[in-house]
Amino acid sequence: MRKKGAEKILAVYWFAILLIVAGAIAYMVSSFYGNPYDIRDIEAGILTDKIASCVGDGGYLREDFFTPDFNENFLEKCGLTLQTEDTYGWKNNQYYLKLSVRNFNSFDDPFLEISEGTSSLGDFCGLEGATNPYCLKRSFYVIDKQQNQYQIDTLVIVRKTEKNVQ
Amino acid sequence: MSNNKKAQIGETMTWVVATLVIITILAVSIFISTAFLNKYKRPSSSYSQAADILGSESFYSYLLTNNQEGNSIYEQLKTEDNLNDFNGNLGVSIFKNFYGKEYNDVWLGIIFSRTLLPAKSNAFFDNHPSSIKGGDIYGRVSDYVLDNVILNEDKTINLYLGDKN
Q1: Which of A55, A153, B36, B157 makes the best surface tag, with the fewest CB within 10 Å?
Q2: How many domains in chain B?
Q3: Which 4-43 residues of chain B touch chain A by CB within 8 A?
Q4: pLDDT above 90 covers what percent of chain A?
Protein backbone atom coordinates (compact mmCIF):
# COMPACT_ATOMS: atom_id res chain seq x y z
CA MET A 1 0.00 0.00 0.00
CA ARG A 2 2.82 2.36 1.05
CA LYS A 3 4.82 1.40 -2.06
CA LYS A 4 1.88 2.32 -4.32
CA GLY A 5 1.66 5.77 -2.69
CA ALA A 6 5.39 6.35 -3.22
CA GLU A 7 5.08 5.44 -6.91
CA LYS A 8 2.28 7.99 -7.31
CA ILE A 9 4.40 10.71 -5.72
CA LEU A 10 7.30 9.74 -7.99
CA ALA A 11 5.06 9.96 -11.08
CA VAL A 12 3.94 13.45 -10.06
CA TYR A 13 7.57 14.39 -9.48
CA TRP A 14 8.64 13.18 -12.93
CA PHE A 15 5.73 14.99 -14.53
CA ALA A 16 6.72 18.22 -12.76
CA ILE A 17 10.35 17.85 -13.88
CA LEU A 18 9.18 17.20 -17.45
CA LEU A 19 7.08 20.38 -17.39
CA ILE A 20 9.96 22.43 -15.98
CA VAL A 21 12.41 21.14 -18.63
CA ALA A 22 9.94 21.64 -21.49
CA GLY A 23 9.05 25.13 -20.24
CA ALA A 24 12.70 26.10 -19.94
CA ILE A 25 13.51 24.86 -23.46
CA ALA A 26 10.50 26.75 -24.86
CA TYR A 27 11.61 29.92 -23.05
CA MET A 28 15.19 29.62 -24.32
CA VAL A 29 14.10 29.03 -27.92
CA SER A 30 11.58 31.88 -27.88
CA SER A 31 14.06 34.28 -26.27
CA PHE A 32 16.63 33.52 -28.97
CA TYR A 33 14.43 33.30 -32.06
CA GLY A 34 11.81 35.77 -30.82
CA ASN A 35 14.05 38.76 -31.46
CA PRO A 36 14.00 40.04 -35.02
CA TYR A 37 17.00 40.54 -37.27
CA ASP A 38 17.94 44.16 -37.85
CA ILE A 39 17.95 44.60 -41.63
CA ARG A 40 17.61 48.39 -41.71
CA ASP A 41 21.18 48.82 -42.98
CA ILE A 42 20.39 46.55 -45.94
CA GLU A 43 17.15 48.45 -46.60
CA ALA A 44 18.96 51.80 -46.47
CA GLY A 45 21.67 50.42 -48.79
CA ILE A 46 19.08 49.31 -51.34
CA LEU A 47 17.40 52.72 -51.24
CA THR A 48 20.77 54.44 -51.74
CA ASP A 49 21.57 52.18 -54.69
CA LYS A 50 18.17 52.94 -56.23
CA ILE A 51 18.79 56.67 -55.91
CA ALA A 52 22.25 56.43 -57.50
CA SER A 53 20.96 54.28 -60.36
CA CYS A 54 18.14 56.76 -60.96
CA VAL A 55 20.34 59.86 -60.93
CA GLY A 56 23.10 58.40 -63.10
CA ASP A 57 22.53 57.51 -66.71
CA GLY A 58 25.38 55.61 -68.36
CA GLY A 59 28.03 57.53 -66.44
CA TYR A 60 26.39 60.92 -66.93
CA LEU A 61 23.93 62.78 -64.77
CA ARG A 62 20.44 62.29 -66.15
CA GLU A 63 19.47 65.19 -68.36
CA ASP A 64 16.36 66.27 -66.47
CA PHE A 65 18.11 66.21 -63.08
CA PHE A 66 18.14 69.98 -62.63
CA THR A 67 14.59 70.53 -63.87
CA PRO A 68 11.89 71.56 -61.36
CA ASP A 69 9.75 68.66 -62.58
CA PHE A 70 12.38 66.12 -61.48
CA ASN A 71 12.99 67.77 -58.11
CA GLU A 72 9.30 68.08 -57.31
CA ASN A 73 8.45 64.53 -58.41
CA PHE A 74 11.65 62.85 -57.33
CA LEU A 75 10.04 59.74 -55.83
CA GLU A 76 7.80 59.18 -58.81
CA LYS A 77 10.61 59.77 -61.33
CA CYS A 78 12.85 57.27 -59.52
CA GLY A 79 10.09 54.71 -58.94
CA LEU A 80 10.44 54.93 -55.17
CA THR A 81 7.77 54.77 -52.51
CA LEU A 82 8.23 55.58 -48.85
CA GLN A 83 4.98 53.99 -47.72
CA THR A 84 5.12 51.42 -44.95
CA GLU A 85 2.83 48.67 -43.76
CA ASP A 86 0.08 49.87 -41.43
CA THR A 87 1.41 48.36 -38.20
CA TYR A 88 2.75 49.67 -34.89
CA GLY A 89 0.93 52.95 -35.50
CA TRP A 90 3.24 53.85 -38.38
CA LYS A 91 1.77 56.49 -40.62
CA ASN A 92 4.18 56.35 -43.55
CA ASN A 93 6.72 58.26 -41.47
CA GLN A 94 9.51 55.71 -41.27
CA TYR A 95 11.86 56.96 -43.99
CA TYR A 96 13.80 60.05 -44.87
CA LEU A 97 16.09 60.59 -47.83
CA LYS A 98 18.11 63.57 -48.95
CA LEU A 99 20.39 64.27 -51.90
CA SER A 100 22.87 67.13 -51.66
CA VAL A 101 24.56 68.21 -54.87
CA ARG A 102 27.77 70.25 -54.83
CA ASN A 103 30.52 71.01 -57.29
CA PHE A 104 33.19 68.33 -57.08
CA ASN A 105 36.22 69.18 -54.92
CA SER A 106 34.60 72.34 -53.61
CA PHE A 107 33.94 72.99 -49.97
CA ASP A 108 30.94 75.18 -50.77
CA ASP A 109 27.53 74.34 -49.42
CA PRO A 110 25.38 72.19 -51.70
CA PHE A 111 23.67 74.24 -54.39
CA LEU A 112 20.78 71.80 -54.66
CA GLU A 113 19.06 69.60 -52.11
CA ILE A 114 16.24 67.19 -52.73
CA SER A 115 14.58 65.60 -49.73
CA GLU A 116 11.59 63.36 -49.14
CA GLY A 117 10.03 61.73 -46.08
CA THR A 118 10.12 62.59 -42.40
CA SER A 119 12.90 65.14 -41.87
CA SER A 120 12.75 64.91 -38.05
CA LEU A 121 14.36 61.45 -38.26
CA GLY A 122 17.60 63.27 -39.09
CA ASP A 123 17.86 64.49 -35.49
CA PHE A 124 18.82 60.95 -34.42
CA CYS A 125 21.78 60.54 -36.78
CA GLY A 126 25.04 60.33 -34.90
CA LEU A 127 23.43 59.13 -31.69
CA GLU A 128 24.53 55.81 -30.22
CA GLY A 129 22.09 52.95 -29.70
CA ALA A 130 20.36 50.32 -31.78
CA THR A 131 16.92 51.71 -31.02
CA ASN A 132 17.66 54.93 -32.90
CA PRO A 133 16.82 55.19 -36.61
CA TYR A 134 19.51 53.86 -38.95
CA CYS A 135 21.32 56.53 -40.98
CA LEU A 136 23.38 55.80 -44.09
CA LYS A 137 25.48 58.56 -45.65
CA ARG A 138 27.29 57.86 -48.91
CA SER A 139 28.70 59.86 -51.80
CA PHE A 140 29.35 59.41 -55.47
CA TYR A 141 30.93 61.29 -58.34
CA VAL A 142 29.07 62.15 -61.48
CA ILE A 143 29.50 64.43 -64.51
CA ASP A 144 27.04 65.92 -66.93
CA LYS A 145 27.36 66.01 -70.71
CA GLN A 146 29.08 69.42 -70.48
CA GLN A 147 31.81 67.85 -68.31
CA ASN A 148 30.72 69.66 -65.16
CA GLN A 149 31.79 67.55 -62.18
CA TYR A 150 29.52 67.00 -59.21
CA GLN A 151 29.61 65.27 -55.87
CA ILE A 152 26.27 63.88 -54.76
CA ASP A 153 25.89 63.04 -51.07
CA THR A 154 23.00 60.78 -50.15
CA LEU A 155 21.46 60.44 -46.72
CA VAL A 156 18.95 57.65 -46.19
CA ILE A 157 17.31 57.10 -42.81
CA VAL A 158 15.18 54.10 -41.90
CA ARG A 159 13.34 54.05 -38.58
CA LYS A 160 11.18 50.89 -38.33
CA THR A 161 12.61 50.27 -34.87
CA GLU A 162 9.68 48.20 -33.62
CA LYS A 163 10.11 45.64 -36.36
CA ASN A 164 13.90 45.39 -36.33
CA VAL A 165 14.99 45.91 -32.73
CA GLN A 166 13.15 44.83 -29.57
CA MET B 1 12.95 0.17 11.46
CA SER B 2 15.88 2.53 11.94
CA ASN B 3 17.73 1.10 8.94
CA ASN B 4 14.60 1.45 6.79
CA LYS B 5 14.27 5.13 7.77
CA LYS B 6 17.95 5.79 6.97
CA ALA B 7 17.49 4.22 3.55
CA GLN B 8 14.44 6.41 2.91
CA ILE B 9 16.33 9.56 3.89
CA GLY B 10 19.23 8.55 1.61
CA GLU B 11 16.89 7.96 -1.32
CA THR B 12 15.09 11.28 -0.73
CA MET B 13 18.39 13.13 -0.61
CA THR B 14 19.37 11.57 -3.94
CA TRP B 15 16.19 12.88 -5.54
CA VAL B 16 16.55 16.32 -3.96
CA VAL B 17 20.13 16.61 -5.23
CA ALA B 18 19.09 15.35 -8.69
CA THR B 19 16.31 17.93 -8.81
CA LEU B 20 18.67 20.70 -7.79
CA VAL B 21 21.16 19.64 -10.48
CA ILE B 22 18.45 19.69 -13.16
CA ILE B 23 17.18 23.11 -12.07
CA THR B 24 20.74 24.50 -11.93
CA ILE B 25 21.52 23.27 -15.46
CA LEU B 26 18.28 24.82 -16.76
CA ALA B 27 18.91 28.10 -14.94
CA VAL B 28 22.43 28.35 -16.40
CA SER B 29 21.10 27.56 -19.91
CA ILE B 30 18.39 30.21 -19.62
CA PHE B 31 20.89 32.77 -18.32
CA ILE B 32 23.28 32.09 -21.22
CA SER B 33 20.54 32.20 -23.86
CA THR B 34 19.07 35.47 -22.55
CA ALA B 35 22.24 37.28 -21.52
CA PHE B 36 24.62 36.35 -24.33
CA LEU B 37 22.71 34.93 -27.28
CA ASN B 38 19.64 37.15 -27.03
CA LYS B 39 21.47 40.22 -28.21
CA TYR B 40 20.89 42.63 -31.04
CA LYS B 41 20.78 40.36 -34.08
CA ARG B 42 22.10 41.31 -37.48
CA PRO B 43 22.26 39.24 -40.64
CA SER B 44 25.62 37.63 -41.29
CA SER B 45 27.98 39.92 -43.17
CA SER B 46 29.93 37.04 -44.68
CA TYR B 47 27.91 37.08 -47.88
CA SER B 48 29.69 38.24 -51.00
CA GLN B 49 28.49 41.61 -52.09
CA ALA B 50 27.81 41.49 -55.82
CA ALA B 51 28.35 45.16 -56.61
CA ASP B 52 28.74 48.62 -55.17
CA ILE B 53 26.34 50.68 -57.24
CA LEU B 54 27.69 54.04 -56.05
CA GLY B 55 31.25 52.89 -56.70
CA SER B 56 30.26 51.79 -60.20
CA GLU B 57 28.49 55.08 -60.95
CA SER B 58 31.57 56.99 -59.82
CA PHE B 59 33.82 54.70 -61.87
CA TYR B 60 31.91 55.16 -65.13
CA SER B 61 31.71 58.94 -64.65
CA TYR B 62 35.43 58.94 -63.87
CA LEU B 63 36.24 57.16 -67.13
CA LEU B 64 34.12 59.65 -69.10
CA THR B 65 35.80 62.71 -67.54
CA ASN B 66 37.91 64.70 -70.00
CA ASN B 67 41.26 66.34 -69.39
CA GLN B 68 41.97 69.88 -70.58
CA GLU B 69 42.78 68.62 -74.09
CA GLY B 70 39.35 67.03 -74.30
CA ASN B 71 40.51 63.41 -74.03
CA SER B 72 38.49 61.21 -71.75
CA ILE B 73 40.26 59.15 -69.10
CA TYR B 74 39.13 56.03 -70.96
CA GLU B 75 40.95 57.24 -74.09
CA GLN B 76 44.03 58.22 -72.08
CA LEU B 77 44.26 54.80 -70.46
CA LYS B 78 43.87 53.06 -73.80
CA THR B 79 47.02 54.67 -75.10
CA GLU B 80 49.07 54.90 -71.91
CA ASP B 81 50.52 52.12 -69.79
CA ASN B 82 49.61 53.53 -66.41
CA LEU B 83 47.74 56.26 -64.57
CA ASN B 84 49.03 59.78 -65.22
CA ASP B 85 48.91 62.82 -62.92
CA PHE B 86 45.48 63.91 -64.10
CA ASN B 87 43.59 60.64 -63.90
CA GLY B 88 45.58 59.33 -60.92
CA ASN B 89 44.92 62.35 -58.74
CA LEU B 90 41.27 62.46 -59.79
CA GLY B 91 41.00 58.75 -58.95
CA VAL B 92 42.45 59.35 -55.49
CA SER B 93 40.12 62.25 -54.77
CA ILE B 94 37.10 60.21 -55.84
CA PHE B 95 37.72 56.65 -54.72
CA LYS B 96 39.95 57.06 -51.66
CA ASN B 97 37.98 60.06 -50.49
CA PHE B 98 34.51 58.57 -50.96
CA TYR B 99 35.10 54.88 -50.28
CA GLY B 100 38.27 54.78 -48.16
CA LYS B 101 36.27 54.79 -44.94
CA GLU B 102 33.93 52.03 -46.08
CA TYR B 103 36.59 49.72 -47.52
CA ASN B 104 40.09 49.00 -46.22
CA ASP B 105 41.31 48.10 -49.72
CA VAL B 106 40.69 50.66 -52.45
CA TRP B 107 42.69 50.11 -55.61
CA LEU B 108 42.44 51.58 -59.09
CA GLY B 109 44.81 50.58 -61.83
CA ILE B 110 45.50 48.71 -65.02
CA ILE B 111 45.47 44.93 -65.28
CA PHE B 112 47.45 43.33 -68.11
CA SER B 113 46.10 40.00 -69.18
CA ARG B 114 49.23 38.53 -70.77
CA THR B 115 51.87 39.12 -68.12
CA LEU B 116 53.08 37.19 -65.13
CA LEU B 117 52.11 39.96 -62.70
CA PRO B 118 48.87 41.22 -64.21
CA ALA B 119 48.11 44.08 -61.79
CA LYS B 120 50.43 46.99 -62.46
CA SER B 121 51.25 49.06 -59.39
CA ASN B 122 50.95 52.82 -59.67
CA ALA B 123 52.04 55.86 -57.71
CA PHE B 124 48.51 56.72 -56.60
CA PHE B 125 47.11 53.42 -55.31
CA ASP B 126 50.37 51.45 -54.82
CA ASN B 127 50.09 47.69 -55.26
CA HIS B 128 46.97 45.63 -55.88
CA PRO B 129 45.72 44.29 -52.49
CA SER B 130 46.18 40.69 -53.66
CA SER B 131 49.92 41.22 -54.09
CA ILE B 132 50.18 42.32 -50.46
CA LYS B 133 47.66 40.06 -48.75
CA GLY B 134 47.73 37.02 -50.99
CA GLY B 135 44.36 35.84 -52.25
CA ASP B 136 43.13 33.21 -54.64
CA ILE B 137 44.26 32.71 -58.24
CA TYR B 138 41.90 35.43 -59.43
CA GLY B 139 43.44 37.95 -57.02
CA ARG B 140 40.43 37.93 -54.72
CA VAL B 141 41.12 38.82 -51.10
CA SER B 142 38.10 38.33 -48.81
CA ASP B 143 34.90 40.25 -49.45
CA TYR B 144 35.28 42.55 -52.42
CA VAL B 145 33.55 44.23 -55.31
CA LEU B 146 35.17 44.70 -58.65
CA ASP B 147 34.54 46.87 -61.67
CA ASN B 148 36.37 46.21 -64.91
CA VAL B 149 36.31 48.06 -68.19
CA ILE B 150 38.17 46.57 -71.13
CA LEU B 151 40.63 49.04 -72.67
CA ASN B 152 41.95 46.72 -75.40
CA GLU B 153 42.59 43.01 -75.80
CA ASP B 154 45.60 43.18 -73.48
CA LYS B 155 44.46 45.37 -70.62
CA THR B 156 41.57 46.45 -68.49
CA ILE B 157 41.07 49.27 -66.00
CA ASN B 158 40.14 47.83 -62.66
CA LEU B 159 38.47 49.31 -59.57
CA TYR B 160 38.81 47.05 -56.53
CA LEU B 161 36.91 47.78 -53.32
CA GLY B 162 37.60 45.12 -50.71
CA ASP B 163 37.61 44.26 -47.03
CA LYS B 164 34.48 46.21 -46.13
CA ASN B 165 34.34 47.79 -42.67
Answers
A1: B36
A2: 2
A3: 15, 19, 22-23, 26, 29-30, 33-34, 37-38, 40-43
A4: 57
